[in-house]
Every structure is written in C-alpha cells, then in structure tokens.
Specification:
alpha/beta, Rossmann fold, five-stranded parallel beta sheet, 55% helix, 15% strand
C-alpha cells in the first residue's frame, strides 16, 4: 500500500532532505513538494495526497491550518513544530503535530497508525517522561517515592507510554477519552517535575 505524501517547508534544503528521507520507506511516495501556502493548496488539489507533512511556518496562523483541513478533509495534515504544547492541540480531526526533534521513524510510524485510524502517543511525550525519570534518579529520588505519588491508573499509563503504545490503545486500555488521557499525562509529568524540585 502506497502512502502518498506532500512535503511543505519554506527552507529548500530541509524540504528536500525530508522528502529524500521519507522516500526511503517502501510504503511512502513523496508526490510533490511546496514552499508556500498557496503553492501547497494547489498541489493538494492536483495530487490528492494521503498526507501533508508541513512546517507550521507554511500556514503562518492556526486559522489557515483549520481552513485547509476543512477544505481537504480526506488529507491528513502533520504539522512540524518545535513546541511540545502543540502536540496536545486538536485543531481538527485530520490535523496532528509532530515535534521536529522526534525521530524520522516515529514520523513514519505516526503515518502508519493514522492510516489505521489510530492516534500516536508522540515520542516527545515518551522523551519527556524518560528525561524526567532520569532526573529523578540523578536527584536521588527513589522509584518507591514516585510509586507513592502516582495512582494505579497513572502508573499503568506511564508504562504504556514507555512501551510506545498508540494513543488509541492507551485510551482503550485505560477506558479514557483522548482529552482525559492528555490530562493524565500532564499530571504524570507534573508529579515528576514536583519530585525533582529541591
């Protein structure tokens, strides 16, 4: 099964590098590239891609993202961002965010899961959790202390995230809605941050 992708980025070298890298995966076919918003809209009309992987700078505003997502509901938009808070936003059903310091293979996995109508628990969340766990260890806080501060549900979610389960799998396992799961993840990270504070 071929996944048709359009890559959009204002920087030519980045756009070409990302296109070349994505093309290394057998399932992905990069059908075109864009540098500007109007150019991107024209390409989407002509190519009917499955995915648009685009830098936020292409759209400039969230309103433009929403308008594009509504105009092309059959296209999955993945926005490249440097801000972890963007990954928790749900602008439209067919819009997801991906942190640019995530691994390329995670972007690929995100596409595959989206094709299967699953959401992806972003690697950035996992990195934040793992980073916080390392900081806990370095500051001398024992695992037992963390266990005492998290209830059973949060511990179970923490394990699922570390194991890299998809967002939908975790929601199903924990019997939570997506916004409820996001809130639980935020609470887990906040608990760890509080334990690290001197």
């Amino acid at each position: 099964m071929a996944i048709r992708v359009v890559v959009a980025h204002p920087e030519v070298l980045y756009k070409q590098a990302l296109s070349n890298a994505l093309s290394l995966f057998n399932e992905i076919v990069v059908v075109n590239q864009a540098r500007f918003y109007e150019e991107l809209l024209s390409i989407i009309r002509n190519e009917s891609p499955d995915f648009v992987v685009a830098a936020f700078e292409i759209f400039v505003t969230e309103q433009r993202i929403v308008e594009a997502a509504e105009a092309f509901p059959y296209v999955n938009f993945i926005l490249l961002t440097k801000r972890s808070e963007d990954t928790l936003k749900c602008l439209k059903e067919n819009v997801q965010s991906f942190l640019t310091f995530g691994y390329l293979v995670d972007l690929y996995r995100m596409m595959l899961l989206t094709v299967e109508n699953k959401k992806f628990a972003q690697p950035a969340v996992i990195k934040n959790v793992l980073s916080s766990l390392r900081k806990l260890e370095e500051s001398g806080v024992t695992t037992e202390t963390l266990l005492l501060d998290l209830d059973q549900k949060k511990l179970s979610i923490l394990v699922d995230i570390i194991l890299g389960k998809s967002f939908d799998e975790i929601c199903y396992n924990q019997k939570l809605k997506s916004d409820e799961l996001n809130n639980e993840i935020e609470k887990i990270l906040e608990t760890m941050k509080n334990l690290i504070r001197p």
